[in-house]
Amino acid sequence: MKTLLTLSAFAGGLLLIACNKDDNDNLSPDEKILSSKVWKIQSLTTKSTVNPEQDSSIMKDCINDATIHLYTGMSFDLKDNSTAGCDSTVFGFDKGTWSFNETTDSLYLDGTKRDVAMKVSSLADTMVVATYRDNVSPTNNRVKTITLKKK
Q1: Average pLDDT score over residue span 109-121
Q2: With contact defined as beta carbons under 8 Å apart, do 69 and 77 qualify?
């Protein structure tokens, strides 16, 4: 009986240790950078219609309050934190799951409203720069560049 109690206590301890395992242990170095903080949108641009060689800002004031949180459990939340609400045709607020492909430097957001595939051109501890083809409007899907900074 004493052996049974000891084994039960040991098994329970192992179960607690297994449940306390940090999700961060399974992440790549790039995924750890992406998921270790809340990101704020610093800029959102697209090619100018007048001069395609130049970028044109499409930021709206309300986007200044938007945040992107990529959680270690591989879920994401793109939040509109503005008080009056923000135009979702410029930037699609959503939530869902995310993944990062280190071979292609691609960040995938599998949202409840839509999916977005971003090509990450710069990834650092304090800043991320990525391009993506926006598919909010089927008639006006443009390549956009988003710059995120650590909040």
Answers
A1: 93
A2: yes
